[in-house]
Design brief:
Elements (H helix, E strand, L loop, with lengths): L1 E4 L6 E4 L7 E3 L6 E3 L11 H10 L3 H11 L3 H25 L6 H6 L8 H4 L7 H14 L3 H6 L3 H7 L13 H17 L1 H8 L4 E8 L2 E8 L2 E13 L2 E11 L13 H9 E5 L5 E5 L14 H17 L2 H9 L4 H10 L7 H18 L16 H22 L3 H8 L14
Antiparallel strand pairs: 1-2, 3-4, 5-6, 6-7, 7-8, 9-10
């Protein structure tokens, strides 16, 4: 066998001696050359070169392996992490340089160091946490929600003050016995006339009379019943203030009556006031009015009036909560619309009609923030049908008397009833 080499690509071949001098086509570069014997040892044969090339991985595979070794996302991730760490350090540094701003409400409740009884002297008693507990208890009494009221009572304190009715100390009672007593206590207080009177009247004045350890005593008054004084006791338990007792007193100071001349208009208004006694014994002074159509407010256009009438119909037909919320947002413009709907539904003994009037009465309470003594069907303890009818009629007339006095002084009523200030972002009638 002789050795030859392609002069073009230098590929070595091993050929028979008989083919020396013949023309051969190179398998590598496809060029034709004349085979001449070479003296040197060939670097590789064509077959060995092909085997070596077959052992090498394809270029795409080698490139993919290279990409796996050097992921292009790694540098990006490192840059993002670096930026995040730098921003965190910057925010921490800026926060350490700033003086924290104090919340005005929290600052108002913080006591001054070294002052005696400073924990309560700097706080408006009406906004004391104990009064918030009283507000929740009043809501529970109004709704006869015994479970919610039970959570606001210091049952153990009531139990001890009543002389331990079961004859055993509170701590020796089982868990079930304690729960049964607390539930019975909540039911008893919710039906007590004195407690219901306190629940029906919104407190407008409060003063802290006693602060001894965990015990507090407040004097509470309401502008609706100026002669009534409630002494409400609280007991601090688990970071909350629970009701521990209440006594109602009459405040009848000696006042020298001075006769004042009243105008005929004022005299007519005074004659319209009546004392209204609720089914639970609570009393209230209401101004009776005539059930007749009232004028819409000047800012209410016909389109807005039609929309509010539709919302009132939705409340009557399906008791829609969404419609109620929209009417509340549209106060005071929605009040005349609801009052005019009352005129369209005169009071009768029909249960369906009474339920419609009860729903409108409840809607007016939510819109105005004013309480009503309208006896709802199935929820009254009165037995005399005529007495129930008279009470319902007076409650409906009181809505028109109330609106006649406050329609032009709505901003004053907001302060009187403690309603939230109007939000300019909410919907308003377009003039």
């Amino acid at each position: 066998m002789a050795h030859t080499r392609c002069p073009h690509c230098q590929t070595a071949y091993k050929i028979p001696d008989t083919r020396l001098g013949a023309n051969i086509r190179c398998k590598q570069c496809q060029q034709v050359f004349q085979a001449e014997e070479v003296a040197s040892q060939p670097r590789s044969t064509a077959g060995e070169g092909q085997r070596r090339r077959r052992r090498q991985a394809p270029a795409s595979v080698r490139a993919q392996a290279h990409r796996r070794k050097t992921n292009p996302l790694v540098p990006i991730m490192l840059v993002v992490v670096g930026i995040g760490m730098f921003y965190g350090l910057y925010v921490a540094f800026q926060g350490s340089q700033k003086t924290p701003q104090k919340d005005p409400e929290v600052e108002a409740q913080l006591p001054e160091a070294g002052s005696e009884n400073s924990s309560s002297s700097k706080v408006d008693p009406l906004h004391h946490p104990a009064m918030r507990s009283l507000r929740y208890a009043r809501m529970a009494i109004q709704a006869y929600n015994f479970t919610s009221l039970e959570e606001r009572l210091a049952a153990a304190d009531f139990y001890q003050r009543e002389g331990e009715p079961s004859g055993h100390p509170w701590r020796t009672l089982s868990r079930q016995e304690q729960q049964e007593y607390a539930h019975a206590l909540a039911q008893r207080l919710a039906e007590d006339p004195a407690w219901r009177e306190l629940a029906e009247q919104e407190p407008t004045f409060a003063s802290l009379d006693l602060e001894q350890g965990d015990r507090l005593e407040f004097t509470v008054r309401s502008s609706a019943l100026p002669q009534r004084i409630w002494k409400v006791n609280f007991l601090g338990q688990d970071g909350e203030f629970r009701l521990a007792g209440m006594t109602a007193e009459e405040d009848l100071p000696e006042v020298v009556e001075v006769e004042e001349e009243t105008t005929p208009e004022e005299k007519g208004i005074q004659e319209k006031f009546v004392e209204l006694t609720g089914e639970d014994g609570s009393k209230g002074r209401v101004l009776r009015g005539k059930i007749e159509k009232v004028d819409l407010l000047e800012e209410t256009n016909p389109s807005q009036a039609r929309e509010m009438k539709q919302l009132v119909n939705e409340v009557l037909d399906s008791e829609s909560l969404a419609a109620e919320r929209q009417l509340v947002d549209l106060r005071p413009h929605s009040i005349p619309v609801v009052l005019n709907r009352l005129v369209d539904l005169p009071l009768t003994d029909d249960p369906a009609r009474v339920m419609q009037l009860a729903n409108l009465d409840s809607l007016l309470q939510k819109i105005s923030g004013r309480n009503s003594m309208f006896p709802r069907p199935g929820m009254t303890s009165l037995q005399d049908a005529q007495e129930i009818r008279n009470l319902r009629q007076t409650a409906l007339e009181s809505w028109f008397g109330w609106w006649d006095q406050w329609d032009q002084r709505w901003n004053e009523w907001i302060e009187e009833a403690g309603l939230p200030k109007p939000d300019p972002r909410r919907r308003r009638p377009r003039g």
